[in-house]
Design a protein that fits this description.
mainly alpha, about 210 residues, about 0% strand, Serine Threonine Protein Phosphatase 5, Tetratricopeptide repeat
């Protein structure tokens, strides 16, 4: 990668990471125009377009990316294609792309996305299996898979189990804000539930002779 290309790519990555969508899309368009055979540029453009709900244009960029991507990077293209349909609310199509990603290169990341997609469809039993497998890939980076396991158990009212998973996720990433919020919510619920149970217990009356 020459200096000019490297500079433009770094500017694009910075915009991508700081969630500045207008800059992201503009720089990605510049990169894809200047280096049309580099599939990374088309992936970056597609992701930026999805973030502003320009789905038709994002789909076209993803088609270009899949045509250009070497085999070892196709899984990334499939994940972004899954994201496209997830953002559109078409979870069935999203699932198909996530399954292609897992088949192409099974990883913690691809499994987490597939598990989350299944959970969105209410298919909790399948999602639990996928997230459980995702967590086993690399236990030191399993925070997202563990968090998602907690969310599923919370949805099924298995609150103590959910709490355990949220705490495991936080142990891996102490700054995991969503997991901390979910953990605190469960703690509060358990206190409320305990108080309600105590208040429902019948009081013992004084027995008179």
């Amino acid at each position: 990668m020459n200096a000019k290309k490297r500079k433009l790519w770094q500017e694009l990555v910075d915009a991508w990471n700081t969630v500045t969508p207008a800059c992201h899309v503009y720089l990605a368009q510049e990169f894809a125009t200047a280096y049309p055979k580099d599939f990374f540029g088309w992936i970056a453009l597609a992701d930026g377009l999805m973030n502003i709900s320009a789905f038709e244009s994002a789909s076209k960029a993803l088609i270009r990316a899949r045509r250009l991507a070497p085999k070892e990077h196709l899984s990334w293209c499939y994940l972004k294609s899954g994201k496209l349909y997830r953002e559109k609310g078409d979870h069935r199509r999203a699932e198909r792309w996530y399954r292609k990603a897992v088949s192409s290169s099974e990883s913690q990341e691809s499994s987490v996305f597939l598990g989350a997609c299944l959970a969105k469809q209410g298919r909790f039993s399948e999602a639990l299996l996928i997230h459980g497998k995702a967590a086993s890939f690399d236990p030191e980076k399993a925070d997202e898979a563990l968090f998602n396991l907690g969310l599923i158990h919370r949805a099924e009212a298995n609150f103590v189990v959910a709490l355990s998973y949220f705490e495991q996720a936080i142990a891996i990433d102490p700054e995991y804000a969503d997991a901390k919020t979910a953990r605190d919510d469960i703690h509060k619920l358990l206190k409320i539930r305990s108080s309600v149970v105590r208040n429902k217990r019948p009081s013992r009356g004084v027995r008179r002779a």
